[in-house]
Amino acid sequence: MSADAERGQTQQPIRCLIAKVGLDGHDRGAHVIARAFRDAGFEVVYSGLHRAPEEIVQAAVQEDVDVLGISILSGAHNTLVPKVIEGLEEYNAFADTLLIVGGIIPEEDREGLREMGVAAIFGPGTPMQETIDFVREHAPQRD
Amino acid sequence: MEGTDADRRDTATRPEDVDPETAARNERLVESLLAGEHRALARVITRIENQAPGHRDLVARLHPHTGEAAIVGITGSPGAGKSTLVDKLAEAYRRRGDTVGVVAVDPSSPYSGGSVLGDRIRMASTVGDMDVFFRSMSARGRLGGLATATTDAVKALDAFGKDVVVVETVGAGQSEVDIVRTADTVAVLVQPGSGDDVQMLKAGILEIGDVFVVNKADMDGVERTVAELKEMIHRRDAAGDATERRPPSEIGHHGVAGSAGADADADTQNDASDDDTDDVWEPPVVETVATTGDGIDELIDAFDAHADYLCDSGKRETKARARYADEIRRLMRSDANELLDEELRRHGGVDALAKRVYERETDPYAVAASIVGPLRDCVEARRERDEPRTSE
C-alpha cells in the first residue's frame, strides 16, 4: 500500500536529544533549538540542566535518538564531549548517532572536537535554518 | 510457535510480507534484547514506534517472553507531578532490587509533526543506572495507533526482563484511558485544592483508578481533597462493585447504595459472582510529596497490595485476557480499516463519492454496499472453500 510504502516520510520523524551537560546553567539556547527542531518536525527529547555525561549517554541510548545535540557554554567541552563519546561507544551507539555541539567553542578547539567525531559545531549566531538543514541532511539512515 | 504461525498468516495477507532478510534481522534483534542489550531494546521500541516493516513479526517474537512484569499505569492532569513521581518510584523500586522500565507518553498534539518530550527532565534520581530504562513516546498525531504502540513498547520492556514497567500519560481523553488500561494497576494522580481534578474524576477517570494519589500533599487543602476522593471512591464502590453495570449517575445517595452494600454481604453475591465476595478492592488514597519522596514507600505498598489482590482473586488473569481481547479487536479493526481505505481509494476516494452522493447520483448506503459487497463475497467464497476442511 502506498501509505505504508511511504512510511519513511510519515512515521519516522528524526529523533533528537538536546542535552545540557556539566555545570552550565544557561539553557536559553537549548530551548530555542529544541523548539525550532520541533517546528521542523523533529521529535525532541530535552535532557534538562546539569546532566552528567553518563546521563546523556543513558538518555541517547534509551531514547534511540538519531541526533545528539550537546549545548555547552561552560568551556568544559574538551573534557565532557570525549566522555559522552566514550560512553556511546560502550553501547555501540556512537557510529550511527549524529553528534553536534552548540555553544561557545573557541576556534582552536573545534578541530580537536571534529577529530573526536563531532559532526558539526554551531556557535552563537548560526542561522537556525542552517542547523536544521544540516541535521536533515546528515541524520543517519537506519533500516 | 502457534502465535508466530498465526502472525505469519496474518502478515501474509498484508502488503508488508516479512522477507527473509527482515525475519533474520528481527531474530537477531530479539536475541540481543533477550540477552540484555540496551541498544537492542531501544531499537526494538523504535521499530515498534515507527511501525517499521516487520514490526508485527518482531512483537510476535517477543510475546512468548512477556507476562512477567508488573505493569503500573500513572495518569493525572498536567502539572500534577507525574514525572517527578515516576522518578521517585523508579528510585524506590531500584532500592529494593527491582529493575524498571518507563514509557512516558507525551500526547501534546504537534503542529508540525514534531514535538518536545520533556518528561525525561524529571528523571534525576537514577543517574547512569541502566536498569531504569526510560523511553519517551510522542503521540505523533495518531490516536488509535498510540495505544498499540504503547502496548507493544511495554511488551518489549517486559520481554527484556524488567520487573516493573511504568506507563505514564496525561489523563485526558479516550486514547489516554486506553493507554493506562493496558496496566495491571492504575494510579490516578490528583493535586490538592484543585476542584478541576475532581471534575476530571467525575468525567470517567475515577472508574479506572486502582490507587489514588494526592500528590503535593504539603500544599493547602490536602485533607479536603483526600476526603472528597474517599467519598467518591466509596460511592463508586457502593454503587455496585461492577461499575460497568450501571452508570454512576443513576445511583442514589443512601437508599440504593445501602442496599447494594447489603447485598454484597448477603447471599446474592455468594452464588452470583464468586470473585467479588471477599475481595472487593477498595482503592486506597495515598498522600505523597514527590519532590521529597514522602509517601513513595506507602505508594509502592499500595501497588504491591493491589498486585497481590489481583493474583489472589484471579483477576490478574481475567484482566490480562480482557486486555488481549481488546488488543485483538483493535488490531483487527485497524487492519480492516486499512483494507477498506484501500478499496475506498480504488473507488475514486471518499471525496469523489461524497460529491456523487451530494449530487443525488447515488446514496451513502449504495456506496457502502458497493465497497463492502465485493469484500464480503471474497470472504464468503473463502469460507465455503474452508468450511469442509475445518469440519473434518
Notable traits:
A: 143 residues, alpha/beta, Rossmann fold, 7 helices, 46% helix, disordered N terminus, B: 392 residues, 3 domains, 8 strands
Low-confidence stretches of chain B: 1-16, 242-277
Mean pLDDT of chain A: 86
- CATH fold field value of chain A: Rossmann fold
Can you list the strand order of the major beta sheet of chain B? 4-2-5-1-6-7-8
Number of domains of chain B: 3
* Oligomeric state as shown: heterodimer
Question: How big is the Rg of chain A?
Answer: 15 Å
SSE string of chain A, helices as H and strands as E: HHEHEHEHEHEH
Largest interface: A-B, 35 and 37 residues
CATH superfamily (homologous) name of the largest domain in chain B: P-loop containing nucleotide triphosphate hydrolases
Inertia-based shape of chain A: globular
What string gives the helices and strands of chain B in order?
HHHHEHEEEHEHEHEHHHEHHHH
Lateral strand order in the biggest sheet of chain A? 2-1-3-4-5
- Main sheet makeup of chain A: 5 strands, parallel
**Outline type of chain B:** globular
What does this structure look like?
The complex is a heterodimer of chains A (143) and B (392). Chain A is of the alpha/beta class and 143 residues long. Helices cover 46% and strands 17% of the residues of chain A. Chain A is built from seven helices and five strands; from the N terminus they run ααβαβαβαβαβα. Chain A has a five-stranded parallel beta sheet, with helices on both faces. In chain A, α5 (77-90) links the parallel β3 and β4 (98-103). In chain A, α4 (53-63) packs across α5 and α5 (77-90) runs parallel beside α6 (107-116). The longest helix of chain A is centred in the middle third of the chain and has 14 residues, at 77-90. Chain A is globular, with a radius of gyration of 15 Å. The relative contact order of chain A is 0.17. Residues 1-10 of chain A have low confidence and may be disordered. Chain B has 392 residues and is an alpha/beta fold. Chain B has three domains: 1-65; 66-313, 3-Layer(aba) Sandwich (Rossmann fold); 347-391, no CATH class. Chain B has helices at 2-12, 20-34, 38-50, 55-62, 82-95, 144-160, 174-180, 195-205, 222-238, 255-265, 267-272, 296-313, 315-346, 349-358, 364-391, and strands spanning 70-76, 100-106, 115-117, 132-138, 164-170, 185-190, 211-214, 285-287. In chain B, strands 4-2-5-1-6-7-8 form a seven-stranded parallel beta sheet, sandwiched between helices. In chain B, β6 (185-190), α8 and β7 form a beta-alpha-beta unit. At the A-B interface, α3, β2 and α4 of A face α3, β3 and β4 of B.
